[in-house]
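User: Can you help me understand a structure? I only have the sequence.
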Amino acid sequence: MFFRRIVHKKWVNPGFLIGPYLLIYGFGLFFLTNIYFIFQSQSINPIIIILLMGFVMTLIELIGRLISLKNKIRL
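Assistant: Let's start by predicting it. Here is the structure, written out as tokens:
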């Protein structure tokens, strides 16, 4: 948001909500935190957990993009 503020010389709304709220960040934080807490106590290689988190974030972004295309929302 600060980068957009500097480039455009005004505050730019990055999504369809009012204010600095982005649903993709909220959902991402929720799912990544849950993945971390689920696999934290198990003896799984941290690289596998990081790859799983990357896959989940990519999936969330894909779903968000498909929803925005279906509803003709420009983000």
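Now, to help you interpret it: The CA atoms of residues 36 and 50 lie 9 Å apart. The first helix runs from residue 2 to 8. Let me know which part you'd like to focus on.
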